[in-house]
Amino acid sequence: MLGLIIPVALNGLMTGAIYALVALGLTLIYGVLHIINFAHGSLLMLALYAVYFMHVLLGVDPYVAMPFLVLAFFALGYVLQRGIISTFSHGKESNILLVTLALSIIIDNLALYLWTSNTRSLNLPYAYEMIEVAGALLPLPRLIAFGAALVIALLLWLGMTRTRDGRAIRAIAVEKRGAELVGVNVKHVYALCFGIGTACLAAAACLLIPTFYVTPQVGYAFVLIAFTTVVLGGMGSFAGALVGGLLLGVVEALSGLFLGETLGQIGIFLVFILMLLFRPQGLFSARGVR
Amino acid sequence: MTQNSSDLTRVSSRGISRRRLLALGGSGLGAPGLARAQPAPVRIGAVGPLTGTLTYNGTQAQAGIRIAADIINAAGGIKSLDGARLEVVYADAESRPDVGAAQIDKLAGAGVSCIVGAQSSAITLATTQAAARFGIPHVVDIGTAPQLLQRGLSNVFRFTPGSGESVTLGVENLFSLNRAAGNPVKRIAIVHEDGPFGSGMAKTLAARLPGVGLEIVETISHPTPQRDFTTIALRLREARPDLIMPTQYINEFILFARALRQQRLSIRGIYSIFGGGASNPRFAREHKEAAQHIIDTNHWYDPRKPMSQALAQRCAAIGIDVSYDVMVAFGSMQVIADALEQAGSREREAVMATLARATFSDTIMPYGPIRFEKGQNSGARVVNTQIRDGVIELIYPAEFATATPVFPMPPRV
Amino acid sequence: MKTRMHPGNAVVAVILIVAALLPYFVLPAAWLGLATNILVFSLLGVAWNITGGFGGMMSFGHAVLFGSGAYATAMLQLHAGINPWLAALAAMAIAAGVGTFIGALSFRYGLRGSYFALITLAFAEVFRVLASSFAMTGGGQGLSLPLATGLANMQFASRLHNYTFVLLLVVAGLVITTLVQRSRFGAYLVAIRENEAAAQALGIDTFRVKVLAMALSGAIAGAAGVAYMQTFLFVDAQIGFGTVMSFEALLGPVIGGAGTVLGPVLGAVVLHTVGELAREAIGGAPGLNLVFYGLVLLVILRFLPNGLMGLFLGQRRRPATKEQA
Description:
The structure holds three protein chains of three kinds. Chain A has one domain (about 1-280): ABC transporter involved in vitamin B12 uptake, BtuC (Orthogonal Bundle). Helices cover about 75% and strands about 5% of the residues of chain A. Chain A is built from eleven helices and four strands. The mean pLDDT of chain A is about 85. By secondary structure, chain B is α/β, with parallel strands linked by helices. Chain B has helices at about 5-25, 55-75, 95-110, 120-135, 165-180, 195-210, 230-240, 250-260, 280-285, 290, 305-320, 325-345, 350-355; strands spanning about 40-50, 85-90, 115, 140, 155-160, 185-195, 215-220, 245, 270-275, 295-300, 360, 370-375, 375, 385-390, 390-395. In chain B, strand 8, helix 8 and strand 9 form a beta-alpha-beta unit. Chain B is globular, with a radius of gyration of 22 Å. By secondary structure, chain C is mainly alpha-helical. Chain C has helices at about 5-25, 30-55, 65-80, 85-110, 115-130, 160-180, 185-195, 195-200, 205-230, 235-240, 245-255, 265-280, 290-305, 310, and strands at about 145, 235. Chain C has a two-stranded antiparallel ribbon. In chain C, helix 2 packs across helix 11 (about 245-255), helix 6 (about 160-180) crosses helix 7 and helix 12 (about 265-280) runs antiparallel to helix 13. Chains in contact: A-B, A-C, B-C.
């Protein structure tokens, strides 16, 4: 069993990259809008179906589809926030949660009606390409996802710190009224954040589909762990989402090895609960968004 | 679309009084002039998870039930009830036992003579119990938990085998296959999901396998959903089993089969009992390399029977795969129709009494004579299937086989 | 504290009383199962309302309290052979204890708002995994109570008696809620909801009040768990601690009107009745009726932000609420 620690941990790192990608969007949305986006899992599912159908109907490879879907889902997220979430919730926090919950119910069941619950997956030739790293066999698509997670986190961080919109976002996250007073268009910025968060999901979907499957309920498999990642890493911190996701992937894999998979899931939640209690600001405490 | 209950009570009372009239008059009065009006349909309730996590199983079964009703009605309906047609009332259990139980109330109010369902032990436990309160016979198409028949309810009739007898047969068949190949397999690893389905199976396996000289070297359980199987694959590799026996739902099975291939495990076989994916035509078709030579012990129809082929054609025509949910649901409907024929009545007590006592004619399943003893169809049995080049073949027992078994698994590239 | 009952409250009360009496006179037996389920969810909603509605502590994992009650009563009856009525009381106490534990832990470390919501979710998940891991809790197969009808066993052969039993529990829950609303404890709770810092400054022991609220909520949610167990005689980890039950707990109160006495029941009744009618209307298309349900939810959120009770109580906006920070 001990000899398996390295391969299991390395593999956990790969899985963790996916968690990081899903969490990046969530941390931005939470860090700025302060909402728990219950529709996050449903939107991930939608993105997975999108990349699946792009391959099956149009023959487009997931990696090629990524830029298009990222843009498309950015637009979707923008419209959802500006058009539905903000107007329907009247700004009340509890209502925002419920609006996103209602959205997730609608999206999940529309997907069920349109595409049925038959599990779909892609059998891409490179899905079985394994790269050997330190004695472990890692699937090529997962290594690509790992690299992509690093790049995307970096891009987001650069975007936040170097662009004007990024500065506006950070300003609002820290002090909304002050930002409003100096002329920042809060509605636009909120929608921008939601859009970026959703775009991250599209990226995650394209990177995930070669080694996973899609069903109308696939979002649930990731949502809770994404929340855990966000809290672990610190709401609003991209570095936190990245490190948190990777860390969780490793913790999950090692817990699975030593405690068994069922109890191993507890390892995750213990981490979550302990973080909430003792360091709710996360590993990379950030006021606002960083 | 379901009618509301007040309409239905009017309809059924009209039906009953006419039937009594005809019965009083005797067969001599069966002149066309008198029986010109269509007899009222016999209502069958079909409850299952049409939404929620088990939707695939529920909707597949629903298709099987619908096709069965169509075929039976096209062949003249229930002859002993003057050609009364079968009318199925569908109820969605939303993959939740409490919803399933509430739906039984609706079905009872709709005047169903019999209920069929519900694709999962947890849901079926609740629906059979609810049906018992109304005295409605409940044919179980799939529900493997032993508790289903251990509660002293007289309205439960399980068409398919339960987990106990299926595991016994699965183990026996494995033993036979192994012996015929010169016993290449000695070490077994069990991988199961930790829900009611998987853990029950694993427990029974642990009791039976040593009895046929096979050693269990590793047992691994995992929750549903499980996102990654690499750790499990690595643990398995350390345990060096000859054969892996998985019991999982389809999503996890896909990931597991892929992980085994990715981590290049060299095994002599994958042999499942009620494997979630191993008898899923779509999985077989879409994952040829990972699925190749996987053997399953499951409910399957006898592919050589003409009615089985008719079912397969109908499924192809509406674009669905012939999965085992379709098959057992269809078979259950055949039994219900036969019970109605033999009972000559649509009254619940009469149907229940017939189900409890009679022997039933052939269905599409490869079963012996169908009789329900203490609620269990004693003729029921599972068979072995194997995935070969994307197609699911029946390999054992030989009398129903469409292909010869390939055992052990040849080394994978 | 003198309170004049707003006429709106009386209207809703009448509506609910009529609805509650329907199964005795008019409702076909087909709807009795649904009616009983609605009552169980109402009770759970009443529990959630104490902490989430009056106290402003939105919990997303209330199933942890519900499931604790259901599992506790099942385990005490099955493993210790304890009489079901005593087991029920003990189960309520255990659920209250779980609520106290989670509350104490969370509030000791100052968790509130979304953090509190998330931690309750996490606890529910932990309990769910634990429940499916041990033989004593039925492992993956859950726990079944043997069928043994009779008042002594808290199992009711007659569906109508079962319904009455749960109805009495809901009425008790409403009475408790009213008492809370009119008590000083309730006033403190609302003060904490509106502005915790100010409440503390006024000398209120906010920690104690909040934990007590969690305990009370736990006891009532535990009762809902007992009611579920005695009605269906089966519980497993997914049912007891899963997200479905946690959502049921909050949907009723929020739709009906959080922080009002009748809100949770009104919300549960409307939501499930609409859901059922939607299912009837849309019939065989799997999933579409739930889409409709989600749309109704959205519409209510858009136009009735204070819940349905807001309509009756003539409120367009509730004063001084937590706005999006």
